[in-house]
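Summary for the steering committee. The consortium agreed at its last meeting that each partner would contribute one worked example illustrating the joint modelling workflow. Our contribution is presented below. We chose a case with several input lines so that the handling of multiple components could be demonstrated. No manual editing was applied between input and output; the record is shown as generated.
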Amino acid sequence: MKYNFDDLADRSNTNSVKYSTPDVLPMWVADMDYKTPDFVLDVIKERVNKGCFGYTEQPNYFYESIIDFYKRNHIIEIKRDDMIFTQGVVPAISSAVRELTNDGDNVLILSPVYNMFYSSILDNNRNALECKLTYNDGIYDIDYDDLDNKLKESKLFIFCNPHNPIGKLWTKEEINKIAKLCIKHNVMVISDEIHSDIVTPGMKTYSFLNITDLDVIMLSSASKSFNLAGLQGSFMVCYNHELLHRLEHRLDVEGQTHGNALVYDALSKAFSDGDNYLSELNKYIYNNKLYVENFIKEEIKDLTYIKGDATYLVWVDVSKVTDNVKRFTAKLKRKYKLWVSSGDTFGSNGAGFIRINLATSHANVVEGMNRLKKAVEDK
Ligand SMILES: Cc1ncc(COP(=O)(O)O)c(C=O)c1O
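What follows is the complete predicted structure of the assembly.
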């Protein structure tokens, strides 16, 4: 291994959100503990050493690095004019919601889902219409009849591909089935693919960009795969250029089209030189996941590990040990010094679950599991 994922970044004095409570093991927000790889760090240092941070133009190499990355890793052809820079996936989703829907319109989501989808919809006075994923024997699925009915009443669909928090890697068949229903009801899709490069080794995310007979707005960034969220850079891809320009204009009106002085160089370097890093990262995370799956099966039999092939987040059913997940996670944090996400943050059908972030050292994962076991035994 070229990269040492046991050697974690020092987050002291960085105003880290993840580490905002002292003396707890933070396994909650989707932020990795690993050091930024040197090839990205070097390009940032080089830029910093110029000693000047004036307004920055969008360089062509930023777009070229993404085009090449998608060609190599996703066998998808994106052209320069299919793409725009955005200042983060969430702000771009919120802006698209404002542009494409009106007050009171239904925006469809598959719940439980990333909590900020709710904010992007509700904070804009739209209605979050939930198609609840079905959950049987530890397996999540879509109720396609329900999806069909709800799409009929929806103006826009925000899809999480792969799916945070359940870690589901949607298959080509599932995406084609969803797309067929979106086409039937003429509903546009925003596909948030920010987690698309953290997958079980050997597996691939099937991008919604493969669906070409529907208006798809794909959003992604290097924020999750290379832990660069604090640089606030992402991109939007849409093959319908009229729609893309409409969204770009909206972002412009909202003052969201310019990146900071570091973001283009950092993201370009990550996308152009990061394949090997990603491959090693995915192996390390997969190993952490296997450990947690086995530990829960052997040592905390009242919990159920939900198997997922994407993201570094794992979803665990705690419904046999608590009927109040907020209280359970609060106690876990206060008494056992382990900070995980409470499942109800991701929708009402997330109550009964916790989400654990495994993008940390294996030693921390082992420690976290021991604390979780003690908390479950302490009923
Ligand atoms: C599905 C999903 N989308 C978007 C984001 C955040 O994106 P950004 O920081 O670019 O706004 C996250 C972060 O956890 C996420 O899980």
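The pocket of pyridoxal-5'-phosphate is lined by residues 30, 88-90, 114, 160, 164, 192, 194-195, 221, 223, 229, 234 (CB under 6 Å). The chain has eleven helices and 15 strands.
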